[in-house]
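As a warm-up, study this chain.
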Amino acid sequence: MKKSTLGGSFTDRALLEGHLRLEASGKNEKIIYNATNRAERWSDPEEKVRAEFYAELIYRYGYDPDRIAVEFTVPDRSPSDFADLVIFHDAERKKPYAVIECKKDGISDAEFSQAVEQAWGNGNAHKFRAVYVGVVAGGTRKFLDCSDKYKPLERDSNVVADLPVTYGNPPEWKYRKGISNEWQDIKPVSKGELIAAIKKCHQSLWGGGRLSPPAAFGEFCKIIFVKVRDEKAPRKKGEPYEFQIKSDEPASALALRIKKLYAEEMEREPDVFKELIRIDDGTLKMCVSHLEAVNFNKTDLDTKGVAFEQFLDGFFKGDFGQYFTPREIIQFCVEMLNPTADDMTLDPACGSGGFLLYAMDHVRRYAESVYEDDERAAYRHWHDYAKDRLYGIEINDEISRVAKMNMILHDDGHTNIVGFDALDRLDRFKQERRKLARDSFDLVLTNPPFGATVKETEKGSGYMDGWELMFYTSKGSAEAAGPDPDRVDFKMGKKGIKRAKTIKTEILFCERVWQFLKPGTGRAAIVLPDGILTNSSLQGVRDWLLARFQFLAVVSLPQETFQHSGAAVKASVVFVRKRAQGEQPDDDEPIFMASPSNIGYDATGRKTYKTTVKTENSSRRVEVHATDLFDIEVTLEKAFKPGTGEAEWQERSRRVVLDSGVLGQYRQFERTAEPFFV
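Now compare it with the structure written out below.
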């Protein structure tokens, strides 16, 4: 929502300066348009949109309120019709200039098209011919030239970039780089505005089943990719952005321009996207209309992260739920391991990239606190980490694209997302990325897939060879160990001697994490099903883990942790350090253990943190959201809903309170490492 020069909404300014006034309160509250003495019900969402645009016509477009009619009866419309707003050439209101229909924010594309037809019908009624018609639905807008040079049924090539200012000519382009006028350059937005814009794109792309959710999201990612890159493209002050609707440009010409930009980016980075944009021209134009005013690159990283995360959570529930670890668990793991910019960091089952994003954000926050007065140094500190030391592996191509898109929105790291099977032979990784090598990573953070079984009959013996843990999951005898009896170590015992033909993926991921970590210093946070830690049949696996890892902490998660994403398995997070070569386990090694019950949400995903208000004034509020894992300090600011003039609290930033919850107890344990249970 673009604000007036007084810092509030256009409605606020109009109320302050007497163009609007409010009477009564509650459900009976009325908004009065003083120039016409028209009273309307203020509780109606469409009325808030109309009042905001009415005030915008005065302050931004420069129209005299005496020449703006509200709820105007259109002549010769049967039975009768009312135009929400009509701008007249004359104070007597006899010669119409523009007819505007106002709708609440977030209406469907079909409803928006219907509103366009309503505006067109009103603006072209007999003896009531306007020059322009338009529809304003919150932040989504469309204005049409309805002069005689266009045919009566034209709704495409007669689109203008914006309504003219004070009866002038419509601009060729609406948004230009670096223009000091606050309405002519794209702007950063609040979380609510960004979520609203993204949801509208989803609705336009999905269209009630036009595309499957993964396919629709794939197209959305391509569009966002073009948008973000267009913002970063070099251009002089005053030059227009390419990602916007141009006056008198049909959807086919706009689509050609956007697809050309996309093709150029595909050539520069062929690993990000490998398919062309495949949606129709009209749908692409609608998506551009939803996003053209947003400056993604200047919108706060926290805002982008929360908005994108909420959108993903709603989009990929169901079949794709396993690819999205809850943010509370991700953030807890990241804070426990405390990554630095020097740490080579990997998630071998990265899904949508949550662990990578939070690791990057953790380093970014540290950089901004250390280089408080040097923005460039802070950027280089965390940006180099994202570019050179942050890696992810994801077997699902569609989800790896989500991860890449997530990283692009957060400014970098996408080139290190590898679409590959993390359990494939290690020698094949070097063909994909040279740095994905054994003993190379300081940190691994991962929530590997649970429950799936890897079978030799399906994968082949070449895929299954080389895994030590294949000898730790079956019953047998030392003599049955096969041609390589050296695999049997001092901890193997009577179980797990014979080589298994099948094995669970989560068990193989434990060995793959061990292979990737640096000996002696490499640390990991791994989400594992409790069966690995408790089932008697897996004692051999536990012996293998204890021989090769020092267990630093085990945090038992409640049953409901993954239920809302479709997984009912009981799990724990284990924090480990890879032992140095020749290092022997010590029976007296202290292990931190905890069993939190309130992790911030329940089985349905409903938030369960306890909220207390730390400070509050008219424009800013600081809340503390407390859980058993840690507390979060959340800063909120008043922001305006798109196109409505209504203010609401919007999250601007959040930070972990380091000495709180299980996290704080673990920090104490690190200082004085003694056996501990909380």
